[in-house]
Amino acid sequence: MGRAVLQFLSTNEILTIHDATLQILKDVGLLIRSNRVLKILDDAGAQVDHEKSIARIPEAIVKEALNKAPKTVKLSARNPKHDITVPSETNCYLTTDGCGVYMLDPETGERRAGTRRDLANFAILADALESVQVFWPTIVVSDVPKPVHELHEFVTSLKNTVKHVEHEAMNAREAQYEIEIASAIVGSREELEKRPIISVVQCPISPLTYEKGSIEATAEFAKANIPVVAMAMPNLGATGPVTIAGSLAVGNAETLGSLIVTQLVNPGAPFIYSIDTMATDMKTGIGASGTPESAAATVAAIQLAKHYGLPCEMGGFGTDAKVPGVQAAFEKTLTNLPPVMAGVDLIAGIGGLEGSNTLCLEQMVIDSEIWESTLRLARGFDINNETLALDTIRNVGPGGHFLSEKHTLEHFENELWMPKISDRKPYATWKSTGEKNLVDVAKERVKSILKNHQPEPIDKTIQEEINQILKNYEKELLGQ
Fold this sequence. Notes:
Layout (H helix, E strand, L loop, with lengths): L10 H18 L1 E3 L2 H10 L2 E3 L4 E3 L2 H10 L4 E3 L8 E3 L6 E4 L5 E3 L6 E3 L2 H13 L5 E2 L13 H12 L3 E4 L4 H15 L2 H6 L3 E4 L7 E2 L1 H12 L4 E5 L2 E2 L7 H22 L5 E5 L2 E3 L6 E2 L3 H17 L4 E3 L10 H17 L3 E5 L1 E2 L4 E2 L1 H19 L5 H4 L1 H7 L9 H10 L11 H6 L5 H15 L7 H19 L2
Parallel strand pairs: 1-12, 6-19, 7-21, 9-10, 10-11, 11-13, 13-15, 14-16, 18-19
Antiparallel strand pairs: 1-3, 2-3, 4-5, 7-8, 16-17, 20-21
Helix pairs in contact: 1-9, 3-9, 4-5, 5-6, 6-8, 6-18, 8-9, 9-10, 10-11, 11-12, 12-17
């Protein structure tokens, strides 16, 4: 098989970063703003300063957590045909970007706050796109009270796609409600453990900090055997050292810190490794995501995950462009191609603009096209008697053509990638059919999908149960 494999780190360099990580965990420690989690670490043998909320973790605890963590993780879906397991021997998988604060209005092109209807549209689009396997709720919704927006986003997503949903929780109580909702859909807590239709991204705060709500939610999800993605996000030169190696050591310490908590709470709890590094623009102080440094750090992080034998989810499709266009396309290719070539298991980020602050429906479609072409490149090609086609070459001979050959008909669909929205028509045909650019075509495809695609609904009885759980949460949190 002719296939490119991208690696930046030698075995010795991986071990050097690991050794630096162990020193950080043991000597510098982690700031954990949760007495509950500090006690768990204290009981396990960590050196805990309860007054300063610092836990210093010896190597033995790290080793034990790595030994207990499962090497594969199942991500189930409402419709079992969309179940996946990571890592896969043959596939890497795609998820949407879940960091959006705003959305780019498809009609006006203006950036605005998102609503549940907008989020539903993103979920429907992800449900329809064959390239997407996991839906990470793309935007914060503004049409519900702020304290309960996370749970509304969670429910809106589950209602509008049959694929796996990946979200987060801001505290332990919210985590419990999310687990209750997912259990209602699959039938029970026991069934949810067997078929986790949800996973969560719970981010440490770089450098080396865990907020009370998020780390306690991590513990709740681990107890329920819900897969946890611990996405460390050090920014080169700001929340991490300016050097890629230094920020990798910080991010690795944060990710392994989360792993340790999950394994102490529930040995064997499903865990997915993640580091999403951005570079700080030294002119503006802004974290930039569409950079070569981000891509290089991601490749190295994938190598670290593989060294530990852990499945990984990494950020990709990063761009600092504000609208779809040339900048978005080249930055997204730059930050998507290297992780795929390095063997990433899951890559997140399609649909994002402006450092993932803004989400865009047509950009999701464009990113899907970029993804499919990247997968074709990464797949490589076979070299054997059939693909060398010597008999066909003899038959055609000098000066002939291969268009009508049986060998061409048998192999072109597997061998040649065909775009869905990119234009390959002759110039005159393109001119006569409206001179549409890629964004125009993507907008049309979005409209067609939203008009014609209907995700399989949740049973009405279960929907009523979910609505009641939502009401209970709002009453508990808002007193209404």
